[in-house]
Amino acid sequence: MKIIDDKGRLFGKLSIIDIIIIVVVCGLAAGFIYRSVNEDIRQIINPNDTFYLTLKGDHVRQFSVDAVEVGDVFYKKYDSLPLGPVVKIEAVPAQDILLRPDGTAGFVEMEGRYALYITVRCTGTVNESGFYANGSLHLAEGSEMLIQSNRLFVISEIYRVNSSLE
Predict the structure, then answer these.
(1) Distance between CA atoms of 132 and 130, rounded to whole angstroms?
(2) pLDDT digits (tens, 9 = 90+) for 40-70
(3) Could you tell me the pTM of the whole model?
């Protein structure tokens, strides 16, 4: 059996022109997909925007509150890229739910424990998909994040992400 028959068909089934058209169409589709995906990645990686990330550490002790100062640089735990410097610190007495003997519940302040709000100025990308720091770290409210500075390590929740400092 011949590879190309008298009519120019490959194995008697496909013509060489058909194969060339299929290859060109697949190449154009692959190029279009690569270009659209590459633009999305470039948009996320390009860090031009400044925004503010407020992290909430719950039930922290007084020495943890004292360990944070304006200007300290925070990092996501196990990441060498900084989130940014601290611009605002707020500590309020921590509250917890107490179940009373009569079956009712209520909030009570916890002695010696605080809710620590740390606001960090970040540089990254802000687009319709959200806020991104350090290339591709998506910052979504309600997400848990382990953060650290040179004097503090705390399990925190992303409390707020804004384009302006409030």
Answers:
(1) 7
(2) 555 444 567 889 999 999 999 999 999 999 9
(3) 0.67
Structure-token match 């719950």, residue found:
58
Residue 123 lies in a domain: yes
Residues 6+ apart with CB under 8 A from 125: 43, 44, 45, 46, 47, 48, 49, 131, 132
**Tokens 């992400």 -> residue:** 161
Give which of 92, 98, 145, 95 is closest to 122, Cα–Cα.
Answer: 145
3-state helix, strand, coil in the chain (%, to 5): 20, 50, 30
Phi-psi region of 18 (alpha: psi -120 to 50; beta: other; left: phi over 0): alpha
30 and 93: one domain?
no
Q: Answer whether 142's CB lies under 8 Å from 53's CB.
A: no
Residue 112 CB-density burial (10 A; 0-12 exposed, 13-18 middle, 19+ buried): exposed
| Tens digit of each residue's pLDDT (9 = 90 or more) over 65-120 | 999 999 999 998 888 788 999 999 999 999 989 898 998 999 888 899 999 999 99
Whether residue 38 is contained in a domain is answered as yes
**Residue 76's domain spans which residues?**
47-162
**Do 107 and 32 reside in the same domain of the chain?**
no
